[in-house]
Design a protein that fits this description.
The structure is a single chain. This protein is an alpha/beta fold. The protein folds into two domains: about 190 residues, 3-Layer(aba) Sandwich (Aldehyde Dehydrogenase, Chain A, domain 1); about 130 residues, 3-Layer(aba) Sandwich (Aldehyde Dehydrogenase, Chain A, domain 2). It contains twelve helices and eleven strands. The strands form two sheets. Strands 8-9-10-7-6-11 form a six-stranded mixed sheet, sandwiched between helices. Helix 1 runs antiparallel to helix 5 and helix 5 packs parallel to helix 12.
């Protein structure tokens, strides 16, 4: 299967995912039953984002053209993949990269998300026979040529020890932050709510901390974030909200609370579920220096355009990555293309 055929196969899958599918609906229902964090709405949101951002033929062709990808590989390399389970289909971008590069993926699914991806791979094979040769779902990652693993800071240490002998990409915890300057509109605040609340804030691209100008007034922000009050009806989110509110009260930590999110001043980037950290700044240059120094903790920065000299994402867009928005800033396609180059050099 050559590069053009691989891209066409992905594009065909993207078209099908945008069509009604009773069996996919059943898989979504089963996934929600297995993991209550994966609501029907959030699964459908993830699937639509994949179809429109990762599986659009024009976008795939333009993205792939930036790399030296052979039409056909003389020998398939096997890339082991340890999938995270914090969001629905969170590792799908890695699979797209591996398939387009012409490699074979050996996939260790998360127990939290073990039904959606196998069904999508079945659809891919159904509409483009032969694609199943490029994918294998396995209980263990062995017999591979490279590894891409995503997990917590704790699990990353084990990944390093176990997979360190292979060419690898190992991802740790990261979060998004937002920088406000006090000139934001109510529409900006509402859009920021998407960055905070989508997928219950469980993603590495969810905003977990706000940087605010000293003397900032919270009323308008808290009022618009209350637009997302329906999340408080979700039992798991509500339990986390109540627990974290109780912790702050018992420890006598000052906070703001609007019924669906708790804001607490804290220097840490990562925050608990239903909680948003904030920190004041006085000098923008000093803030940019701090953000740069904490780069390995930050997945992306949300802010108004041109507010900072650093790369930023507009409000409401943090959960809409394109094919070239690589997690942790590590170019997965360049990594996979390097496997091909090294192999050619070794055999030469």
């Amino acid at each position: 299967m050559n590069l053009e055929q691989r891209i066409s196969a992905l594009a065909r899958l993207g078209e099908q995912l945008l069509q009604p599918d009773d069996y996919l609906d059943a898989v979504i229902h089963r996934t929600h039953y297995n993991n209550n964090w994966f609501t029907k709405e959030n699964q459908e949101l993830a699937i639509r984002a994949i179809a429109t951002q990762f599986l659009d033929k024009n976008k795939l062709e333009k993205w792939a053209a930036a790399y030296s990808i052979p039409e056909i590989l003389s020998e398939l390399h096997t890339v082991g993949m340890v999938m995270a389970g914090n969001l629905p289909l969170v590792g799908f971008h890695d699979l797209v990269c591996t398939f387009v590069a012409g490699h074979r993926a050996k996939i260790k699914l998360s127990d939290k998300d073990k039904f959606l991806l196998p069904y999508l791979l079945q659809l891919l094979e159904k509409y483009t026979p032969g694609t199943s040769d490029f994918f294998e779902v396995a209980e263990q990652i062995n017999g591979v040529d490279a590894v891409i693993a995503t997990g917590s800071n704790n699990s990353a240490r084990y990944f390093e020890a176990y997979f360190g002998k292979y060419p690898h990409i190992i991802r740790k915890n990261r979060n998004a932050v937002a920088v406000l300057d006090g000139t934001e509109t109510e529409d900006d605040f509402h859009a920021l709510g998407k960055d905070v609340f989508r997928f219950f804030g469980l993603g590495c691209r969810n905003v977990s901390k706000l940087y605010l100008p000293k003397g900032y007034h919270f009323a308008a922000l808290m009022e618009r974030l209350h637009d997302y009050k329906e999340l408080a009806n979700h039992s798991k989110f509500r339990n986390n909200f109540d627990y974290n509110l109780a912790l702050l009260m018992l420890n006598q930590v000052p906070y703001f609370n609007n019924g669906c999110i708790i804001l607490a001043e804290n220097k840490a980037i990562a925050s608990r579920i239903a909680t948003l950290h904030y920190e004041f700044y006085e000098d923008k240059a000093a803030l940019e220096a701090e953000l740069t120094s904490r780069n390995e903790e930050i997945q992306c920065i949300v802010a108004k355009p041109d507010l900072l000299s650093l790369p930023t994402i507009s409000f409401g867009k943090s959960q809409e990555p394109s094919l070239s928005d690589y997690p942790d800033g590590v170019d997965v396609m360049a990594f996979l293309c390097e496997l091909i180059r090294v192999d050619v050099v070794d055999k030469g």
